Amino acid sequence: MAATFKANEVMAAGCFGMVKLYTQPMSRKIRFHRPLLIALGCVAFCAVARLGLDLWLVTTGSGVEFWGITPGIPKEPPASPETLVYRLGILGGNALFAAVVEELIFRGALFRGLRNFLERFTVSAVVWAAVLSSALFALAHALDPALLAEPSAGVWIALAAKVTQAFGFAMIMAALCQSSGTLWIPMVVHGLFDLLYFSVPVLWFGALPTTYGVTDPWNLGYILLSALLMVGGAAVGSKALTHSPDEPSRVVKPRV
Fold it and tell me: What is the rounded distance in angstroms from the CA atom of residue 221 to the CA atom of residue 22?
């Protein structure tokens, strides 16, 4: 019993140490460069566009086919306040998991770890670390058992677009992490993005959508457009990878 308690205590201390290490700010000077603001604008536009499209689909009644809701899930609006509270818990829990766990793994451990390791071999360590960690993030979001059951040309196109979208998003989060010097800001942005992205299908049907598992024209069109915007935003925002919060640089100031 004592050995088990000690092992759990060590594990808890290790987890706390990792969270503290990868979330503590490197500097109190948080700088938002123009390229980074453009990249964040692309993320915000994709989230708001998704929310607006989903609301329109609810009014037309075509959301089930568009989202590819998992079979067996009740496809109906919340019938009671208890159901709504339950679905709010699903939505919030998913956003919290994505914000905390995914950012700790992909930006905290992988991006920062690769950056520190590659600094011994190349001056482009930050860029390579962002690319590699973002590629792993994109591949992790491509895992869908439904694709193996019913693969088709349209599904593979949607999957490729989804992977591209996830890669661009991850690159923007890496740039945000590098430029701000803290992991808290990417966590907040990631959480807010998922709240908007999944709010309508989760609250309306109580299930997370398989957005790249179906080939509805509206769904495919949105994913292709968002993939283009995310990659474009990442290309612009990647300039922020060369900045750290301790380096002097021009900060975007509002015009009076």
Answer: 37
Measured between alpha carbons, how far is 46 from 223 in angstroms, rounded to an integer? 9
User: What is the pTM assigned to this prediction?
Assistant: 0.79
Per-residue pLDDT tens for 166-199?
Answer: 999 999 999 999 988 889 999 999 999 999 998 8
C-beta of residue 112 within 8 angstroms of C-beta of residue 128: no
Phi then psi dihedrals of residue 70, to 5 deg: -55, 130
Distance CA 72, CA 153 (A): 25
DSSP codes, 206-227 = SS---TTS---HHHHHHHHHHH
**Tokens representing residue 78 in the block:** 């919340």
Closest C-alpha to 172, from 107, 123, 218: 107
47 burial level (CB within 10 Å; 0-12, 13-18, 19+):
buried
Structure tokens at 32: 């938002």
